[in-house]
Amino acid sequence: MSVDDEQLDRAFTALGDPVRRAMIARLSRGPATVNELAEPFPITKQAVSRHIQVLETAGLITRTRDGQRRPCHLVPAALEALTSWIDEYRLETERRFRRMDALLQTVREREQ
To answer: CA–CA separation, 1 vs 81, rounded Å?
Structure first.
């Protein structure tokens, strides 16, 4: 799954807020309603709704209709796309460090 710059910007901006990160953590355990997501925070329902909207716009969560309830659901593929993007840079950095370690080992062996 390819992630474009706008998607990355929206997702990382959304995850930059501790309340939204906590909501993502809660949703990782299963769907939750707005009231359930609002429970641990001393903020208004309007603020919670705004946080949910930001997460939805970023593509990190979705909402469904279940009678009167509108539960929120985590979109695992969106988090996997972010992880994949991060891993590209992590793996390249690890390769560079391994090459540097090998070079340093060669230098040490020559000095002995």
So the answer is: 6
Distance, in Å, from the CA atom of 105 to the CA atom of 69, rounded to the nearest integer, reads 62
Retrieve residue 42's tokens: 């001393």
- Rounded CA separation 12/6 (Å): 10
Give, in order, the Cα–Cα distances in Å from 22 to each of 26, 36, 74, 92: 6, 12, 12, 30
Alpha-helical (H) ranges within 16-111 are 18-27, 34-38, 45-57, 76-111
Residue recorded with tokens 């840079």: 89
Residue showing tokens 């991060």: 86
Whether 94 has a pLDDT exceeding 70, the answer reads yes
Residue 2 has pLDDT above 80, yes or no: no
Query: pTM surpassing 0.90?
Result: no
